[in-house]
Design a protein that fits this description.
303 residues; alpha/beta; Rossmann fold
C-alpha cells in the first residue's frame, strides 16, 4: 500500500466507525408513542404524562424524542410529522436510534364507514395504501382507459385512478412481493379488546362515542374531502377510516418486524358531510378521545 494512502484510509475508517457509533442504541427499551401534529401530540402528552416534564429529551435530525415513565412503561413520545414520507422517515429514525419494543400511534382521521360518526374511535387490524396508483388516459372511443401493459388492476378504479399494491421486501425474503395490506400486531389487538372494558364513556355532543377494534384503514398523501371518493373507498376496502400517515407507519413496522397498533379518533367524515369539513373544530377533543383509548391499551400491557 502506498504511504500516502494511509492517512486517507485512517480518516475513512474513523468516519465509518463514527457513523456506526451514532447508531448504537441505548439498552433501555421503549414503547414508541406517536402523533402526527400539534393537537395529537398535545393530547397524547396531556393524557399520558399530564404536566410532568420528560425524564430525558433527545433531538435527532430535528425530531424531538421525549422519554416519559407512565404506568410502569418507558414511553418515547415523538411526532411522525404529517403525511406519508414524514411518517415513514420518522418511524425509521426512531427504530434506528432507539430500542423500540412496540410502536403505537394515536390521532385523528376521517371516517369512511358510513355507520361511524364523528367522535368514534377505530383501531383497524390492517392498513392499505389508497394512493399507490396508475393515472390513466381515457381511450379515444370512451370505452375505458389505456393501461400500461405491465399493470393488471387489483381493485376497482375511481375514474382515471387505478389503485395498486406496493412491492415490499424485508429480511428473510429473496425478492419483493406485492403487499395488499399491513397487519396490526394480533397481541396488541387483543390488548385493545381487553382495554375497551376499562374505558370511561367518551362523550361527543349528545352521544356516547363508540370504539371499534378491527376492519381496514387506508392512508395516502391526501387530505380527502370528497363524498364520491369516500363511497368508492368504502366499497373497495371496506375502510373504517382514512388518514395521511398510518399505512406508512405500518409498512415501516412490517419491514422492521416491529409490532404496531394505530388508534384513530374520527374528527370528520372525509367528505361525507354537507358543507364545511369539521376537522378544524373537532381535532382537539377527538385527539383526546384517541389518546384516552391509547392510555387504556397501555394500562393493559404487561410492565
Amino acid at each position: 500500500m502506498k504511504p500516502l494512502l494511509l492517512p486517507a484510509l485512517a480518516l475513512a475508517t474513523a468516519w465509518v466507525l463514527s457513523g456506526c457509533a451514532t447508531l448504537k442504541k441505548p439498552a433501555k427499551s421503549y414503547i414508541a408513542v406517536m402523533g402526527a401534529y400539534a393537537p395529537e401530540l398535545a393530547a397524547n402528552r396531556a393524557v399520558l404524562a399530564g404536566t410532568n416534564p420528560p425524564l430525558h429529551t433527545t433531538v435527532i435530525n430535528g425530531v424531538r424524542f421525549e422519554h416519559h415513565r407512565v404506568d410502569g412503561h418507558d414511553l418515547l413520545l415523538f411526532p411522525s410529522g404529517v403525511s406519508m414520507v414524514n411518517a415513514a422517515m420518522t418511524t425509521q429514525l426512531a427504530l434506528d436510534h432507539f430500542n423500540i419494543s412496540h410502536v403505537l400511534f394515536a390521532g385523528i382521521a376521517g371516517g369512511i364507514n358510513p355507520s361511524n360518526h364523528i367522535g368514534d374511535v377505530v383501531i383497524p387490524d390492517r392498513w392499505h395504501h389508497h394512493s399507490e396508483a396508475v393515472y390513466a388516459n381515457p381511450k379515444p372511443d370512451g370505452s375505458g382507459y389505456v393501461l400500461p401493459q405491465y399493470f393488471k388492476p387489483p381493485y376497482e378504479n375511481f375514474g382515471f385512478l387505478f389503485p395498486d399494491n406496493v412491492a415490499v421486501i424485508r429480511n428473510g425474503m429473496d425478492k419483493a412481493v406485492d403487499q395488499p395490506s399491513f397487519a396490526a400486531d394480533p397481541d396488541l389487538l387483543a390488548t385493545a379488546h381487553r382495554a375497551l372494558a376499562t374505558l370511561p364513556p367518551l362523550n361527543w355532543s349528545t352521544n356516547t362515542a363508540h370504539v371499534k377494534v378491527g376492519g381496514s384503514g387506508i392512508a395516502g398523501p391526501v387530505f380527502m374531502d370528497n363524498r364520491e371518493y369516500r363511497r368508492w373507498a368504502y366499497r373497495v376496502w371496506k375502510a373504517e377510516c382514512l388518514d395521511m400517515e398510518s399505512t406508512a407507519i405500518a409498512q415501516t413496522c412490517w419491514a422492521n418486524q416491529k409490532p404496531f397498533l394505530i388508534i384513530r379518533g374520527l374528527s370528520d367524515l372525509a367528505g361525507g358531510q354537507e358543507g364545511l369539513n369539521a376537522a378544524d373544530f373537532t381535532e382537539v377533543p377527538i385527539s383526546r378521545h384517541a389518546a384516552l383509548v391509547l392510555q387504556a391499551v397501555l394500562r393493559e400491557l404487561p410492565r
